[in-house]
Amino acid sequence: MKYLKAAAMLTLVLLLTGIRLPVATAQQGPQSQPSETVAKPKKTVPAETTTDTDQPPIPSQYKKDKEVPTNLPTFHSDVTAVQVEVSVLDNKGNFIPNIPKEKFRVLEDNVPQQISTFSTNADAPMTIAMVIEFNNLFQRYWSRGWQETLMASYGFVQTLKPEDYLAIVAFDMRPEILSDFTTDRMKTQEALQRMRIPGFSESNMFDAVVDTVQRMGNIEGRKAILLIATGRDTFSKLTFDKARKAIQEGGVPIYAISILQAFRIMADQYMGANQRMDFLQADNEMNTFARETGGKSFFPRFPGEYPGIFQNISQALRNQYSLAYHPSNQAKDGKFRKIKVELVNPENGEELRIVDEKHKPIKYSVIAKGGYTAPREVE
Hints:
The chain is of the alpha/beta class. It has two domains: 82-122 and 320-373; 123-318, Rossmann fold. The protein contains eleven helices and 14 strands. The protein has a six-stranded mixed β-sheet with strand order 7-6-5-8-9-10, with helices on both faces. Strands 4-11-1-13 form a four-stranded antiparallel β-sheet, with no helix packed on it. Strand 6 (165-171) and strand 7 (175-182) form a beta hairpin. Helix 5 (143-158) runs parallel beside helix 11, helix 7 runs parallel beside helix 8 and helix 8 (240-250) runs parallel beside helix 10.
């Protein structure tokens, strides 16, 4: 039995690092069936035609059957305001409330901007898409870790309020919308329960995340993506650089949770330097997506960390300062512009000093998206 476990672990390491091993036809046959449903997502029913009288109006025009060209910017030519969601957290990850508007400073390409709107409505409904990697490569050989991750995902759903919208998207070769944005938690549970038998062994994470970001482009209000994945990408149509640019343009905060850490601890003795580098690259890609969109990334090593992570994400999503400004640079050049949000003392312009009830200084961090792509003049 010891040798069988070692052989299975070694096989998984080889598969994760790109070395293909033959798989019995009997295993491939039934698992290839889901390919038809993955390729053809269901049509979305517009909010105004829904028959569920108990469900509040959906906060946007969300249409899955509408193709969004990847070369178009998020901000349209007739839109000049830039929206920025900001979280201010102490060194323990707790949200720092009651910071007034005049303490915030927004820089665009190092040029101070005039904040036009400011709000802290923590009760506003949120729209979240859970994008979950579900493929035959990881789940097949590390089923226990996957089941723990899936069960923990139910915990995140429990942190949502009844009026929050949630969609479930699973991906392997292609993203499949298992449940559209809804406040019906029964539909959400049914979608999560569908992830039992994985199909393909591919993990096209870049394509799946960008597709979800673009589909959420017209959604107004607070929105975010919860990405639960290994961070590895096999052969997406988009490269990392192109995916990164599209995600920056989309402006949807990404909260990334790696589900590969526990396996890495188990398989470390079988891995060489190249394999370890692949995993570090996967971590870096997930961290980059989160950091540049104003989200956060998490790399849990044990299942017991999941409840705290989901509470942390829920708190970050619920407790945000919503800022908007009209850029001083009105050029429609299609260029990327960097955004930096700071807390300052308006009297002297120096970094704001925050203290606790004992007047001791608090270390804090300001989390916001790193920029946006300006609109391009239509010729």
